[in-house]
Design goal:
There is one protein chain. The relative contact order is 0.12. It contains twelve helices and 17 strands. Helix 1 crosses helix 10 and helix 3 packs antiparallel against helix 4. It is α+β, with helices and mostly antiparallel strands. The longest helix is centred in the middle third of the chain and has 18 residues. The strands form three sheets. Strands 9, 10, 11, 12, 13, 14, 15, 16 and 17 form a nine-stranded antiparallel β-sheet that branches. Strands 3-2-1-4 form a four-stranded parallel β-sheet, with helices on both faces. It folds into three domains: 85 residues, Rossmann fold, CATH 3.40.50.20; 61 residues, Dna Ligase, domain 1 (2-Layer Sandwich), CATH 3.30.1490; 189 residues, ATP-grasp fold, B domain (D-amino Acid Aminotransferase, Chain A, domain 1, 2-Layer Sandwich). The structure holds adenosine monophosphate (AMP). The site of adenosine monophosphate has 15 residues, from strand 6, strand 9 and strand 14. The site of adenosine monophosphate (AMP) has 15 residues, from strand 6, strand 9 and strand 14.
Amino acid sequence: MGGVILPGNTIGIFGGGQLGRMIAIAAKRMGYRVVVLDPTPDCPAGQVADDEITAPYTDVAAARDLARRCAVVTAEFENVPAETLEAIEPMVPVRPSSRVLRIAQNRIAEKTFLAEHGFPVPNFRPVRSHEELLRAISEIGCPAVLKTATGGYDGKGQVRIEHPDEAERAWERLGKVDCVLEEFVLLEREVSVIVARNLRGEEVVYPVAENTHANHILDTSVMPARIPPELARRAQELARAIAEALGVVGLLCVEMFVAQDSRLLVNELAPRPHNSGHQTFDAAVTSQFEQLVRAICNLPLGSTELYRPAAIANLLGDLWEGGEPNWAKALELPEVKLHLYGKAEPRPGRKMGHLTATAETPDEALQKVLEARRRLKEQA
Ligand code: AMP
């Protein structure tokens, strides 16, 4: 199991969305075969892969079928049931492991792991009962955020609490499921760092990305972040130390808050490629997707150096409201790249693609990518 998985072998991917698609593109480019397991036929990654298995993630027989056909298996998102991965771990290396996914898919487990290892997180308390809710609100104070322990993403499953009286109703709104209550942090900015680790424990760290959100969904990301070098170095070291403590084999994205009181706090862990690393596809010596392939196949890791500063802007389904976006107009800017994920139906809030721009400075890259996205709405 400790050897190198060479090109020609087959990589299995749980999850056939855009992340799986870009992993598949990188893997195919390096000469691997790819099989994707996803509940929806003709999924974005399935369109690129050699084969797709259409089955729910809870289907252990389908997962075993994937395992039999692959030399290594990975997941494009952390909410694949850990039980499914555990069932195939005796058959095939699963990287990152079910243990890592189990921690990352539950906010109580994740924050407890981080706090116990001395990593800085917003002040939080688990909420699993009415008593814990009352104790949490009195100890954390207001404003606070109540978040479901599992299943929340892109701001879903979160309620802000301004006054202790609202706690009860907030918990009811979330269905009285297990939650964490955490302090509401006054944010200076949000950043993230992606780390890659292979089986030999070799590690590389990408430059810090600086992220903005709209309606809780990532809107833009700039790399490198426009922060002092000392803060960037601290963020990178924090991410590296967390990846090591977790023993991740693959990628780990660490989302962080830079608080107005200058604390650097970990918000979330994602043991997979991340939306804030899409810049690396066009702007880095090694993209996060190629890096994942190298890490899980136990190959030497590639350079994380950026050729140029870069920015991405996400393209949500809302953009299609007035008809097909004006792709040609955006691509008149020669340093802009278009990525579309092959999703048939452009629903509002659905990530359909992104644009990347490279430039001399991060500011210029951001301006350029925003200009490109604005052009998509111009009449053809
Ligand atoms: P999450 O799903 O935990 O990543 O939260 C989504 C977004 O909500 C974050 O990217 C922040 O913009 C905001 N947010 C989440 N938790 C907090 C918090 N404790 N304090 C302030 N803003 C938060």
